[in-house]
Description:
Number of domains: 1
Strand content: 25-35%
CATH architecture: Orthogonal Bundle
Distance between the termini: 22 Å
Number of helices: 3
Shape: globular
Structural class: alpha+beta
Largest sheet: 3 strands, antiparallel
CATH class: Mainly Alpha
Order of helices and strands: HEHHEE
Amino acid sequence: MTQCEKVVRYIEIHGSITAREAYWNLGIMRLASRISDLKRQGYLIKSEDIKVTNRDGSESWVSKYSFLERKNNG
């Protein structure tokens, strides 16, 4: 299974994905690149900035990706 296929499956199951989830759950270090690949393949993906708390208690913003709609295979 390719990294792109793993990302698609993860979003289908969980509804969205962040870079942290991609790294910890899928071993993918460059999620933004895989999202770009998927967009070129015809997937309609939205990005939402969300605030997260880091290990040290500080906050930062990350992107959360989800499908706008499923790819049209026709």
